[in-house]
Amino acid sequence: xxxxxxxxxxxxxxxxxxxxxxxxxxxxxxxxxxxxxxxxxxxxxxxxxxxxxxxxxxxxxxxxxxxxxxxxxxxxxxxxxxxxxxxxxxxxxxxxxxxxxxxxxxxxxxxxxxxxxxxxxxxxxxxxxxxxxxxxxxxxxxxxxxxxxxxxxxxxxxxxxxxxxxxxxxxxxxxxxxxxxxxxxxxxxxxxxxxxxxxxxxxxxxxxxxxxx
Length: 213
Description:
213 residues; Arc Repressor Mutant, subunit A; 19% strand; alpha/beta; Rossmann fold
């Protein structure tokens, strides 16, 4: 079922399919064609069929996909059958927002702790998630078998925080800090630069203004 040779671009699209399928199931849609799924997602029907074909045959020709069956298979492929324990490193405004979002909106992960170095936030409780001193990260990672760290510290603290994360045994980092991280081979870092994303969107607003002038 799990195809280790599937392209990264395909792996990144699987959560998009999962989100749409979750919505379809909530709306009591039991079967959907690749054409209708294409309209929901924005990818072509051919792209959807090609992506899913890396992992098996999940649809019925002339009928489409059973939404619950396909959702369960994608959960299995990604590895979301059980909640994945994660930690959030950095309990500033962004870190707190990320904790709140994942606690309330993301059923596939379990935030076991937040970490910081600021004494003014250590000990705070965010929707049941305690903010702890970063010195405790090894203890918590071992206790809860944490797989992923979300990084949301100030840029000047990022590399020091990464060293703490790697020392704890975590080797997957979701990085929200707009700076380059230096990590050893075998560590997977996914960067989410909110400033750059916003700036790229502003291009379209500017282009629209130029077109209309």
